Amino acid sequence: MELVCPAGTPATLRAAVLAGADSIYCGFRNETNARNFPGLNFSTEELAEGARFAHAHGKKVLVAINTFAQVDRVDLWRKAVDDAVASGADAIIAADIAVLDHVARNHEVRLHLSVQAAAATPEAIGFYAKAFGVRRVVLPRVLSVQEIAALNRQIDVETEAFVFGGLCVMVEGRCYLSSYATGKSPNLNGVCSPPEWVNYVEDGNGTTARLAGFAIDRYAPGEPAGYPTLCKGRFKAGDKTSYLFEDPVSLNAGSMLAGLKSAGVTALKIEGRQRGKGYVTEVVGAFRRAVDAVETGGDAIEIDRILAGMSEGGRQTAGAYRKTWR
Question: Which among 21, 91, 173, 318 has most CB atoms closer than 10 A?
Answer without folding.
Answer: 21
